[in-house]
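Problem: given the chain below (72 residues), write out its structure.
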Amino acid sequence: RVYLQEAEIEENVLIPRLVAVSEANPDLRVFVRGDRAINYGRVMEVMGLVSEAGFAKVALIAEVPIPQTEAQ
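Solution.
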């Protein structure tokens, strides 16, 4: 599944929606976050779509691991 902000969207409307949200500003940084269980290759596919749409600043968001003492 692909989400833009908090809303699930179809992959074929991702790029037009990003362009609309960014007001066609290709200098805008787009952040991609993948679920822990998702295949890394799938995250790269989505990042590739964003790049192909003309967004040069595409970054990953990573979760900070919770230290073992806090996780218990």
